[in-house]
Design a protein that fits this description.
Blueprint (H helix, E strand, L loop, with lengths): L2 E5 L4 H13 L2 E7 L3 H11 L3 E4 L2 H10 L6 E4 H9 L4 E4 L7 H9 L3 E4 L2 H18 L2 E4 L2 H9 L20 E6 L9 H4 L4 H4 L9 H9 L1 H13 L7 E5 L5 E6 L5 E5 L5 H9 L13 H4 L13 H16 L3 H17 L7 H12 L8 H18 L1
Parallel strand pairs: 1-2, 1-5, 2-3, 3-4, 5-6, 6-7, 8-9
Antiparallel strand pairs: 8-10, 10-11
Bound molecules: nicotinamide-adenine-dinucleotide and magnesium ion.
């Protein structure tokens, strides 16, 4: 692994990936983001990629002027971002939301290593993505800390041969997916009514982009990760259990057939899973602090409160339906959630309205199906339109 392309380079994961890549001595050959020329210009001057792309055409025009004195080629639009996915031995996708799907597929189809932070891609199109991974012989390494943990517990056995489910492949392990509980752990439904945008943007353990921070507060993030785990590791929903573990020291665990449980522990620092996705199967010294267990003292575990945190419940039910009936309700859940969270961040809707709106939208798409990338893209756009109307 000598070269890397970073999609979503200006975000929380993207910026940490630049630090890790520099530490590993990897050449960053492409960077890309949504809009805003200032930060990506600074990054381009620092890492000297061959390509820098902005999805937003106007912002890309601005970037082209800013980088006119350099050798960096500025690209724009969806094609520009996809062109960046064609660069590098590894592609790290830290795009947020459904927008990451096509660039991820482009990296998979050329058989590259795809280090994937962008969970919405697996939630919305998990079946297509995992099929393409086996068909094109790509390497998909999870970056999401829980899934990196599970991947490490399984010693790299990501998924069974094409088309087979985990049970059929003979591995009947169970995934113990840990969850910090978010900033409102222990809150009653009544307390949640008074939550503001500023409250929801404070996460006790991780510093992340705004959308995933709100998802961590509603527990939709854990719901999306439940679906992500089911897809990545080809397990049935019964084999994924969410456990609230407030300290975020155990990043997840796997219980094997004989009852042995293997967990992965560490400080809450995304640079560890980012680095592992780039150096796998090797391990090399990194940038993060060491875990001091005696300083932490004790670890706690509890069951999630699915009645108060309705988003997690909705996600698990979508996962169950999609798994049994090969429907696309997880895509609907994701698109409705992205649209509703955006409205919450703009203070158009209250925190407690988020699950109601999503549930209402899900009701209109019960049993929906889609099998091609184009069909899923169309469905995603349709759900966003319908959700916006509900808002
Ligand atoms: P962020 O909002 O900080 O950054 C998102 C990045 O994606 C930005 O660079 C943005 O410009 C870019 N982007 C958005 N739309 C784009 C488009 N159409 N084309 C190209 N680039 C686009 O988000 P984040 O916190 O870094 O999270 C990124 C992804 O990683 C999300 O899917 C999130 O769920 C996942 N993730 C994040 C963390 C974390 O600690 N931040 C942990 C696990 C998983
Ligand atoms: Mg996570």
């Amino acid at each position: 692994m000598e070269t890397i392309s970073i999609l979503g380079s200006t975000g929380s994961i993207g910026r940490q990936t630049i630090e890790v890549a520099e530490r590993l001595g990897l050449a960053i050959t492409a960077i890309s983001a949504n809009s805003g020329a200032v930060l990506i210009e600074e990054q381009a001057r620092r890492v000297k990629p061959r390509f820098a792309a902005l999805y937003d055409e106007d912002a890309a025009g601005d970037l082209r002027i800013r980088l006119a004195d350099t050798n960096v080629k500025v690209l724009s639009g969806a094609e520009g971002v996809i062109a960046c996915a064609m660069e590098g031995d590894a592609v790290l996708s830290a795009i947020s939301g459904f927008a990451g799907l096509r660039p991820a597929m482009a990296a998979i189809k050329r058989g590259a290593r795809l280090a994937l932070a962008n969970k919405e891609t697996l939630v919305s199109a998990g079946a297509i993505v995992m099929d393409a991974v086996s068909k094109y012989g790509a390497e998909l390494i999870p970056v999401d800390s829980e899934h990196s943990a599970i991947f490490q517990c399984l010693q790299g056995r990501l998924h069974p041969p094409r088309g087979e489910r985990r049970e059929a492949a003979g591995g009947d392990y169970k995934i113990l997916l840990t969850c910090s509980g978010g900033p409102f752990r222990g809150f009653t439904a009544e307390q949640l009514e008074r939550v503001t945008v500023a409250d929801a943007l404070k996460n006790p353990n991780w510093s992340m982009g705004p959308k995933i921070t709100v998802d961590s507060a509603t527990l939709m993030n854990k719901g999306l990760e439940f679906i992500e785990a089911m897809r990545l590791f080809s397990v049935s929903p019964e084999r994924v259990e969410v456990i609230v573990h407030a300290q975020s020291v155990i990043h997840s665990a796997v219980e094997f057939a004989d009852g042995a449980v293997i967990a992965q522990l560490g400080v809450s620092d995304m640079r560890i899973p980012i680095q592992y996705a780039l150096t796998y199967p090797e391990r090399v010294p990194g940038l993060s602090k060491r875990l001091d267990l005696t300083e932490i003292g004790s670890l706690t575990f509890e069951k999630p409160d699915l009645e108060t945190f309705r988003c997690l419940d909705l996600a698990i039910k979508c996962a169950e339906r999609d798994y049994r009936a090969e429907t696309c309700e997880c895509l609907v859940l994701n698109a409705a959630n992205e649209t509703t969270v955006d409205a919450f961040l703009k203070e158009k809707r209250k925190f407690t309205e988020i699950p109601h709106i999503i549930e209402n939208v899900l009701g209109r798409y019960s049993g929906v199906r889609g099998s091609s990338l184009d069909e899923l893209t169309e469905l995603d756009a349709d759900v966003r339109r319908v959700t916006a109307e509900c808002i």
